[in-house]
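Researcher: Sequence recovery benchmark, item below. Answer with residues only.
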């Protein structure tokens, strides 16, 4: 099985001092919180928040990206409200899980953005667009 993840970008740029040897899995997103954050603690006491970020694209369409935050970032995200404009920095990650269908279990892969920082924006995340 081969999985393909397609990402559409309006603009691509590299930071100053970027070299081929420093390629990393980093993503920067501007979007809107489209569901209330789900804050909880793991059995080992780690704080975690699940977010769904709506990221606009052309022609009135949007992508709804699952995001996960840990620790102090998770705690801060628990206070966010639906519709908040956010700027998120993180990385793509995948994880395997088993989905039970009756007596049968099927192996699946979930893709999500693991957020290292989340910032609430005062203005809409996309200039010229409104919520």
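Model:
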């Amino acid at each position: 099985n081969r999985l393909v993840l397609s990402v559409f970008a309006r603009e691509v740029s590299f930071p100053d001092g970027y070299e081929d040897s420093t390629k990393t899995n980093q993503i920067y997103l501007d979007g809107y919180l489209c569901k209330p954050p789900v804050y909880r603690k793991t059995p080992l006491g780690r704080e975690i928040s699940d977010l769904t970020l709506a990221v606009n694209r052309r022609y009135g369409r949007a992508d709804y990206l699952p995001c996960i935050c840990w620790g102090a970032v998770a705690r801060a995200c628990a206070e966010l409200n639906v519709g908040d404009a956010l700027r998120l920095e993180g990385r793509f990650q995948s994880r395997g899980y088993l989905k039970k269908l009756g007596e049968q279990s099927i192996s699946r892969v979930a893709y999500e953005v693991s957020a290292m920082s989340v910032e609430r924006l005062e203005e809409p995340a996309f200039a010229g667009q409104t919520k």
